[in-house]
Design a protein that fits this description.
There is one protein chain. With 155 residues, this protein is an alpha+beta fold. β3 and β4 form a beta hairpin. The strands form 2 sheets. It has a 3-stranded antiparallel β-sheet with strand order 2-4-3. A two-stranded antiparallel ribbon has the order 1-5. It contains 3 helices and 5 strands; from the N terminus they run ββαααβββ. It holds the Pfam family Ribosomal_L22. Belongs to the universal ribosomal protein uL22 family. It is found in: Plastid, Chloroplast.
Length: 155
C-alpha cells in the first residue's frame, strides 16, 4: 500500500497570556520563512509576543529533528495561526464600594513546519494489510513494485 510520507510537524501553545492581535502582528512577519531566518527575526523584533513564539518555533524544530530526523537547515514555516483563547475576567475594587472589570485575553498559537528535503520523496511502502472495514462489492488493488515492465512482461 502506498502512503505519503509525513513531511510536516507542529507545535501548539495554548492559553498564552496576550491578545491574539498582538501575537498576529509577529506571526505575519515569520510566516513562510526558513527556520534560521525566523530565529533572527524573532530575536530582533521589539515585541513582547516574540518570546513565546520563539519558544514554539524552537519546539517545532526540535519535534522535526527528533520525530522525522530532519536537518534544521531544511525547515520552513508552512503555516502559522493565532486563535483567540478564553478571557480571564477579574474584578478590581474601586472607590465607594464599586468594582471595575479587568479582562486578560489569551490566545492559542500553532506553528507548522515543513521539511523541504522530504517533499521530493512523496511515497513509502507500508505493510500490505487489509482495511479494517469492508464495503460490499469493493476490490482492493495493491501496487506491485516488482513488475517494472521488464522482459518477462511482454506478450
Amino acid at each position: 500500500m502506498l502512503k505519503k510520507k509525513k513531511t510536516e510537524v507542529y507545535a501548539l501553545g495554548q492559553h498564552i497570556s496576550m491578545s491574539a492581535d498582538k501575537a498576529r502582528r509577529v506571526i505575519d512577519q515569520i510566516r513562510g520563512r526558513s527556520y534560521e531566518e525566523t530565529l533572527m527575526i524573532l530575536e530582533l523584533l521589539p515585541y513582547r509576543a516574540c518570546y513565546p513564539i520563539f519558544k514554539l518555533v524552537y519546539s517545532a524544530a526540535a519535534n522535526a529533528s527528533y520525530n522525522m530526523g530532519s536537518n534544521k537547515a531544511n525547515l520552513l514555516i508552512s503555516k502559522a495561526e493565532v486563535h483567540e483563547g478564553t478571557t480571564i475576567k477579574k474584578f478590581k475594587p474601586r472607590a465607594r464600594g464599586r468594582s471595575y472589570p479587568i479582562k486578560r485575553p489569551t490566545c492559542h498559537i500553532t506553528i507548522v513546519m515543513k521539511d523541504t528535503s522530504l517533499s521530493s520523496k512523496d511515497v513509502e511502502i507500508n505493510s500490505l494489510k487489509n482495511p479494517r472495514w469492508k464495503k460490499k462489492h469493493t476490490t482492493t488493488v495493491y501496487y506491485d513494485m516488482y513488475s517494472g515492465g521488464g522482459i518477462w512482461d511482454k506478450k
